[in-house]
Amino acid sequence: MKHQRFSPLAEAWILFFLLGVLMINYPFTHIFNKLTLVLGVPMMVLYFLLGWPLSIAVIYFFTRSLNHGDAESADHEDRDQGES
């Protein structure tokens, strides 16, 4: 029986998923569920309005860096095959 090992990419996606789940559950939502207003906006609303786009931006830059790394590795493979 073969054991499949997760690639670093799969491990990173699992980490992003777990962090996202953690950020929208009890410990964090309780911290920001206050009557305090920041610039007239409740902290909970501000938390979601800033946190959601920030998490999307992090995932965007992560996938963009992966695509950049794939392009570089393809260039190296092409050069290596050309030398043979």
From TrEMBL:
Residue intervals passing through the bilayer: 12-32, 44-63
UniProt keyword annotations, A-Z: Membrane, Transmembrane, Transmembrane helix
Keyword Transmembrane among UniProt keywords: yes
The keyword Transmembrane helix is assigned to this record: yes
Name of the protein: DUF3311 domain-containing protein
Source organism per UniProt: Desulfurispirillum indicum (strain ATCC BAA-1389 / DSM 22839 / S5)
